[in-house]
Task: inverse folding
């Protein structure tokens, strides 16, 4: 009796198992790895969190004001009207940073305080730039000395006071002090530039949703 051979499977029952490489390739196209959202990317490690950064900027404003008061009351360097306006800009920025540090906002509040700090920095920087321009005028183009700021505030309307102060006067064009080759308004510009950098970081840093 002749032994029977096992029946071969029907063609439609034959199955081919794809290799693991093919499965991985198909899976990569079917389920691509998620790309991190731009807002979810962390800040560089050397940039502090919002509250510590506000505190550091606030301390920098205090140091700048302490230096200005030292020059006035110890070295006898009386501030001109433009110097006083620059001090106001530093004080406004310091107050905003202090409130932001105490408040410690999350989300959009960080950007709001950053925008307010930017406005203070831009305003103070504009006054400092005007002061630097006056100090670099030729001697024959320097404006005459005007009355003191206290007198102008007592006599003239506020709008006229602002116009006269920003126009500058002879005492604002004098360069009585410098450090590392930079005059006092130039150092004020450095302070306001630093405040603006801090403000831009706070305004555009990735925030938790």
Result:
């Amino acid at each position: 009796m002749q032994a029977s051979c096992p029946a071969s499977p029907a063609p439609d029952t034959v199955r081919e198992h794809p290799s693991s490489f093919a499965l991985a390739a198909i899976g990569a196209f079917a389920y691509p790895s998620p790309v991190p959202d731009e807002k979810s990317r962390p800040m560089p490690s050397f940039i502090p969190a919002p509250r510590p950064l506000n505190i550091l900027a606030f301390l920098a404003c205090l140091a700048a004001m302490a230096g200005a008061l030292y020059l006035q009351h110890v070295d006898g360097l009386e501030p001109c009207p433009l110097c006083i306006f620059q001090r106001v800009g530093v004080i406004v920025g310091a107050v905003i940073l202090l409130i932001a540090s105490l408040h410690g906002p999350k989300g959009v509040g960080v950007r709001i305080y950053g925008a307010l700090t930017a406005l203070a920095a831009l305003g103070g920087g504009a006054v400092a730039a005007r002061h630097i321009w006056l100090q670099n005028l030729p001697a024959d183009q320097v404006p005459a000395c005007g009355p003191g700021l206290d007198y102008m505030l007592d006599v003239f309307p506020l709008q006229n006071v602002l116009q006269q102060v920003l126009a500058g006067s002879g005492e604002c064009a004098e360069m009585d002090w410098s450090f590392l080759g930079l005059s006092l308004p130039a150092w004020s510009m450095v302070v306001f530039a630093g405040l603006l950098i801090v403000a831009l970081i706070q305004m555009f840093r990735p925030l938790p949703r």
